[in-house]
Design brief:
The mean pLDDT is about 95. The protein is of the alpha/beta class. It folds into 2 domains: about 170 residues, HUPs (Rossmann fold); about 80 residues. The strands form 2 sheets. Strands 1-4-3-2-5-6 form a 6-stranded parallel β-sheet, with helices on both faces. Helices cover about 40% and strands about 20% of the residues.
């Protein structure tokens, strides 16, 4: 594994390779990331992983500063998984050039975009920069961050003629979707997050989206979860997989949730 810290060295290293996979991360490498890497290694000759904690997608400096970091641990894990290149740029390396900012359309300001103003603009703008630097043929992303995956595909895939490969969410034994933010949970709150996941897996199977009172039923379930587990839910919504509009009969759909547990905000979909 070759560790690269600037664009010049990256271009030099990959100039002779055309078909390689890219796995963008913010570190805190876990089995979810490893599954993305394995998918890339199956179909691409070379795999590049980036670790870059992007400051422009955080809603507060406090959230940015407390985001879990352990670069030496991440490097050791990635070495064991035989990736070809690890790109660890500094902030000034990524943002040294001025780019036209990407602004979300009004219709896309739903789910997390409604509650985290500017977050996805930050995500799209950094991905625009990374994709311009790392001209991969395929990017591997997890379905756990489904809205992020959807927006990157919508706003950037055609521009860069790149294929976004969506990979299944990886869960632990407690049914919690693997996430770097899980490291911020206390044992008590981890158990609560497990109960949320298990509850929603059952709820999705039980509810009928043809129900005219679906909105009311979801609101009642929000109250139930909030009162029982002492959490704060931003949203609990059924959305169409294809375009993230409200779910329709005979279409593939997912149940999306974002909630605050202690000082940690978690998202998931089922």
């Amino acid at each position: 594994m070759k560790i690269i810290r600037n664009i010049f060295d990256l271009n030099k290293a990959i100039k002779n390779f055309k078909k390689f996979g890219f796995v963008p991360t913010m570190g805190g490498i876990h089995q979810g990331h490893i599954s993305l890497i394995k998918n890339s290694q199956k179909t691409c000759k070379k795999t590049i992983v980036s670790i870059f904690i992007n400051p422009t997608q955080f809603n507060s400096k406090t959230d940015y500063k407390k985001y879990p970091k352990n670069i030496s641990r991440d490097i050791n894990i990635l070495k064991r998984n035989n990736i070809d290149y690890l790109f660890i740029p500094k902030i000034e390396e990524i943002y040294k050039k001025k780019n036209k900012k990407i602004i979300l359309y009004k219709k896309d300001k739903i789910l997390c975009a409604k509650f985290r103003k500017g977050h996805f603009e930050g995500v799209l703008n950094v991905m625009n920069r990374l994709m311009n630097i790392i001209k991969a043929k395929k990017i591997f992303m997890g379905e756990k961050d489904f809205q992020q995956l959807f927006l990157i595909k919508k706003y950037l895939s055609k521009k860069f003629r790149i294929k976004i490969i969506k990979c299944p969410t990886i869960r632990d034994k407690s049914k919690i979707a693997l996430s770097t933010r899980n490291n911020l949970l206390s044992k008590k709150n981890y158990k609560k997050a497990s109960l949320v996941a298990k509850y929603l897996i059952v709820l999705k199977k039980k509810l009928n989206i043809n129900n005219k009172n679906l909105s009311f039923v979801l609101k009642e379930n929000i109250k139930k979860l909030e009162n029982f587990l002492k959490i704060k839910i931003d949203y609990l919504e059924f959305r169409d997989e294809k375009d993230l509009t409200f779910a329709k009969p005979n279409k593939k759909y997912r149940l999306f949730i974002a909630y605050h547990i202690g000082n940690v905000r978690l998202i998931d979909n089922f």
